Amino acid sequence: MQIDRLLYPITSLGPGRRLVIWTVGCDRRCVGCANPELWAWNADKNIDVNDFIRQIESTTNGQSVDGVTITGGDPLLQADELCILLQGLRSITNDILLFTGYTLNEAETAIPVRTWALIKQYVSVLIDGPYIEAMNDNTCALRGSANQNVIFFDESKRALYNEYTNKGREIQNVFYNNRMISVGIHNREHI
Fold first, then answer.
1. pTM above 0.85, yes or no
2. Which of the ends of the chain has fewer CB neighbours closer than 10 A, N or C?
3. Which residues contact 188 (CB under 8 A, 6 or more apart)?
């Protein structure tokens, strides 16, 4: 699986202290994308999924992890490996948030039925749809643009996420790998 980075603790991409994973590869190339450096596939970013799960377990050992957020790139472009990763993450938390540029209908059509069923089983909340810069209304803490949807596969998480979104957008600046990374859903003028 191609993974660019793993950060913890992040509070600006979902409720609580979260482990956030950025995958590599995206063919949408949305204007104003927050992570254009993750569009191109990069063989140097390949990691065995099971090795990555062990690294995550080592990183989080003894730490309080409220949830995991997976973004990118587009995680669904690596759907088979994503399923393995999701299974491993469930031993850490039952709150997994996944961002994708696919709409729900596109994902249901593009991803094999069995794989999609596993993804829905492990993912609590899905943010779907491409980022459209002109539709960034600077409001929702989980959506970059108003065309995107917050989809609950686990209805028990709705109140938690509603409380999070009511706080508004939050940005965290993190120094990582000799560069500053701004993490969160950005207002249009800050992208």
1. yes
2. C
3. 32, 133, 136, 138
